[in-house]
Specification:
- The protein is globular.
- It folds into two domains: 205 residues, 2-enoyl-CoA Hydratase, Chain A, domain 1; 50 residues, Lyase 2-enoyl-coa Hydratase, Chain  A, domain 2 (Orthogonal Bundle), CATH 1.10.12.
- Helices cover 49% and strands 14% of the residues.
- InterPro entries: ClpP/crotonase-like_dom_sf, Ech1-like, Enoyl-CoA_hydra/iso, Enoyl-CoA_hydra_C.
- GO terms for molecular function: isomerase activity.
Amino acid sequence: MTDYSAFKVELSNSIAHVQINRPEKINAMNAAFWREIVEIFQWIDETDAVRVVVLSGAGKHFSSGIDLMLLASVASELGKDVGRNARLLRRKILQMQASFNAVDTCRKPVLAAIQGYCLGGAIDLIAACDMRYAAADAQFSIKEIDMGMAADVGTLQRLPRIIGDGILRELAYTGRAVGAEEARQIGLVNRTFDDTPSLLDGVFAIAGEIAAKSPIAVAGTKQMLSYMRDHRIDDGLEYIATWNAAMLQSSDLRVAMAASMSKQKPQFDD
């Protein structure tokens, strides 16, 4: 695996631990972050030995969002021509969107473990994950409204499918902070834990359960769930019929059935 400046990446027991590793900067998302996350998730997607991903932040906080130095750098590139400025800004926004699209479209389930601050761009990031879990001290906020802008890297597009429309509008319009328990109540996180160590233990335990399943079945399940965000039920039924016409021929089905009959734990190939 490559060494990264904004991340630490480890692979153990089929679980890739992707950790934002700028604790001295509250894990703010600098230029390297946006570039490296694409490389990391491309590696994850292409590496069969990885079955599940745990995404976390080093130190006391998950992430404070986009690094203000990066925003200042973009601002310094703007000139006097409105049209060219708009072209530049649009290109930058689409590049950032692509970084989190890489997380969303990854074939492997991505579990976010969140402690401390999860602000602004960090909300965009966790919205691209499959599941979210929080320590009791977690604080969530859609901070873009306080910066005089609309969130533009996925929060307003993905969160409507995760939490209710009314509460999302409240959070997006006000930028107010949401604690871990409220986040659980509104469906932003699946479960809360007392502290960061118990959070990581709990999330890795869930990741371990998923890693023990058939990787073919897990990938197919994620593909179908993602497909159904934008399609009708009849479209989804047609798609899964075509998908499983191929995937039901996998040896994993026979392995799972044999293990069930013998009451043993199945062992699946990568």
